[in-house]
Design brief:
The longest helix is centred in the first third of the chain and has 31 residues. Strand 10 and strand 11 form a beta hairpin. This protein is of the alpha+beta class and 690 residues long. Among the domains are: 44 residues, no CATH class; 190 residues, Penicillin binding protein transpeptidase fold; 56 residues, no CATH class. It is found in: Cell membrane. One of its GO terms (molecular function) is penicillin binding. This is Penicillin-binding protein, 1A family. Keywords: Carboxypeptidase, Cell membrane, Cell shape, Cell wall biogenesis/degradation, Glycosyltransferase, Hydrolase, Membrane, Multifunctional enzyme, Peptidoglycan synthesis, Protease, Transferase, Transmembrane, Transmembrane helix. Its main location: membrane.
Length: 690
């Protein structure tokens, strides 16, 4: 061969032409060698896998399947003969007319596309074959780079070398993405038309085949006009190729397509809002997009407690009337590590996928006050610190006047203790405290509790005028329940690939407490006061309506604004945060609806604790208890009508006995001793028998 080329070159007299011919021969030989090398490598590597991962499966904390995402081997994978012939013909006509004649790369089409792009000085025409698209779906990303295109071409050659055309076409039709989480023509057919792919008619097939070009842009649910316009082009192409008759074209163009209604399409799902939150968390863990996760074949082990989830859903259903638009966001988690055990982000997932636990930011009202009072405890306050509760106008630095008001205009018009202020939710006490400490300190304290929102350092922040999420409130209260340790709510414990290889496992780090354990406990005990009627004052404690339902110690705080109702509380084992309100921020005017958050919280907490051991909040070192008169804040005596066991950092407990409640006659005996005298004789004997 070389000698023939040499002889040919010797016959060329022109030196320039001789060199040009030699270069052409060398370039051609190099190209042939490169092509031969590519095909040899493709042959040696063998057939690439025709699947990518499989279904991504989600498991509960007891490893029961709670959800499954579509992958290429989903339950909707169908054989080529199970797909309507018109779908197959439409796909080939639209995407790759020479599919059965090329070997993976359509060289004339590539040349034509390159020429058109050159003339337009931009990319105006694609040249990817069905095989290339299938290769991209299986092995590569959708980034528009030359390296990706070269890899795509190589994989296309491998696929064509080791699989026949029908196998490639079947794989393509079962892996192409149609939007809305539907992978493959069968899944898409069921999603859009509620029928199998073998039952699609011409008009439906044309609409469906047009979607993958832009799953969002051509979705008939998102942009029906765009979808219909592309459908018409595909129908015209089918007629031009003589696949459908003129009469079939006429009927298909005018057919009124019946798309699946959302309520018909939506299957009943287990904890759908929780699964959405888990998917978002998984995306951050793996660092890949959602569509790659859905078809990645991962096994995701979550924190969901199916029993708690069912109880939460049942409680919400029974607590909220069907004829109201009142919405609910509720989450329960473990205060020990932040594991989310139940989540309801709204009343009806099929109606709205908006998660009111993780996405909605609403004003927490008085449920924000514990953060203020933790700051107060850090700055010398105790449970017995007294401030005057009466209508008060505060003149601010800018000259404006701020006048907070209490619920229904009730005031003590005398000093009340911190214990009472928290139990009764006194707003004047809270604003006085916030101004005394400085509003910036409350902003910083909220951040210490893990709420890193952009709050305005203003007096009204003490009354919960900054916006937070239900999830943030649950995590923040968890720090009180666990003795001051930082908590980050999470839904995923570990992730493996299809073959069980561990990709991620959450580590539980033993970090020192962020909050002072003694002050966290003192505040926790103060928060049990909302259920204790010994703290009744100018009004009853805020938790009185649900106190009778509670069978064990709980700490919590309710919060109310014109548009929001909150109840956040905890035991040593579970923290639950509940919000109710209207999505459009409409005022909650119905009195019964204002109590729904508390009712949901109380019912769920009691049911969730049914099988749990009875635990109380442990008193840490450096804390002492004393029975205190809740009005005077001094040590209680037998003359005090009410008394409560309150806790103090050692050395800050009251030293004096109550001076408000004394006998009229100094010689008068205490009430208990007088009672013993009255109960003497046969009454005492009867009392002993009973």
């Amino acid at each position: 061969m070389i000698s023939i080329v040499r002889q040919l070159l010797q016959q060329i007299n022109n030196r320039f032409l001789r060199w040009a011919t030699a270069f052409a021969f060398l370039a051609g030989a190099a190209c042939l060698f490169l092509v031969a090398s590519i095909y040899a490598t493709a042959y040696i590597l063998g057939p690439p896998s025709m699947t990518k991962g499989g279904n991504t499966v989600y498991y509960s904390d007891s490893e029961q399947v709670i959800g499954e995402e579509h992958g290429p081997e989903s339950r909707y994978w169908v054989k080529l003969e199970e797909i309507s012939p018109i779908v197959i013909k439409a796909a080939i006509t639209t995407e790759d007319k020479r599919f059965y004649s090329h070997h993976g790369l359509d060289l004339p089409r590539i040349a034509s596309a390159a020429w058109n792009d050159l003339i337009a000085m931009s990319k105006v025409q694609g040249a990817s074959t069905i095989t290339q698209q299938f290769a991209r779906n299986l092995y590569l990303s959708h980034e528009k780079t030359w390296s990706r295109k070269l890899k795509e071409a190589f994989y296309a050659i491998r696929l064509e070398m080791h699989y026949d055309k029908d196998e490639i076409l079947e794989g393509y039709l079962n892996t192409i993405y149609y939007g809305h989480g539907a992978y493959g023509v069968e899944a898409a057919s069921r999603y859009f038309f509620d029928k199998p792919a073998n039952a699609l008619d011409i008009a439906e097939a044309a609409l469906l085949v047009g979607i993958p070009k832009g799953p969002s842009y051509y979705s008939p649910f998102n942009h029906l006009d765009n979808a219909k316009e592309r459908q018409q082009k595909i129908l015209s192409s089918l007629h031009k190729e003589k696949i459908i008759s003129k009469e079939e074209l006429f009927l298909a163009e005018r057919k009124n397509l019946k798309l699946t209604e959302p309520e018909d399409r939506m299957e009943e799902q287990t904890a759908p809002y929780f699964l959405d939150a888990a998917l978002a968390e998984l995306q951050n863990i793996l660092g890949i997009d959602r569509e790659a996760i859905r078809s990645g074949g991962y096994k995701v082990y979550t924190t969901l407690n199916l029993d708690n989830q069912q109880k939460m859903e049942n409680v919400i259903t029974s607590s909220v009337k069907e004829n109201t638009k009142l919405q609910v966001g509720a989450v329960a988690l473990s205060p020990h590590n932040g594991a989310v055990t139940a989540m309801v982000g709204g009343r009806d997932y099929s109606d709205s996928q908006y998660n009111r636990v993780t996405q909605a930011k609403r004003m927490p009202g008085s449920s924000f006050k514990p953060f203020l009072y933790y700051a107060a405890l850090e700055n010398g306050y105790t449970a017995a610190t007294s401030l005057l509760s009466k209508p008060t106008s505060f003149e601010l630095e800018d000259g404006t006047v701020y006048q907070p008001s209490n619920y229904n205009g009730y005031y003590a018009n005398e000093p009340i203790t911190l214990a009472q202020a928290l139990a009764l939710s006194d707003n004047v006490y809270a604003v006085k405290t916030n101004l005394f400490l400085g509003p910036e300190q409350l902003v910083n304290t909220a951040k210490k509790f893990g709420i890193d929102e952009d709050f305005q350092a203003v007096p009204s922040l003490a009354l919960g005028t900054g916006a937070v999420t239900v999830k943030e409130m649950a995590s923040a209260y968890s720090m009180l329940a666990n003795g001051g340790h930082e908590v980050e709510a999470f839904t995923i414990k570990k992730v493996t690939d299809t073959h069980g290889k561990l990709l991620y496992e959450r580590e539980e780090a033993d970090q020192p407490p962020v909050l002072d354990p003694a002050k966290a406990f003192i505040l926790t005990d103060l928060m049990t006061g909302m259920f204790d009627e010994s703290l009744n004052g100018y009004m009853r404690v805020t938790g009185v309506t649900i106190a009778d339902q509670l069978s064990r110690p709980y700490a919590g705080k309710s919060g109310t604004t014109k548009t929001d109702s909150w109840m956040v509380g905890f035991s040593p084992d579970i923290v639950t945060s509940v919000w109710t309100g209207y999505d459009e921020n409409k005022p909650i005017e119905n009195v019964k609806e204002q109590q729904v958050a508390k009712e949901i919280w109380a019912d769920f907490m009691e049911q969730a604790h049914e099988k749990l051991p009875f635990h109380t909040f442990s008193v840490p070192k450096g804390v002492v208890g004393a029975y205190v008169d809740p009005v005077s804040g001094e040590l209680a005596t037998p003359y005090c009508g009410q008394q409560r066991l309150m806790y103090f950092a050692k050395g800050t407990e009251p030293a004096n006995y109550c001076s408000l409640h004394q006998p009229e006659d100094p010689k008068e005996k205490p009430p208990e001793e007088k009672k013993e005298e009255k109960d003497s004789g046969w009454k005492r004997w009867f009392k002993w028998l009973s």
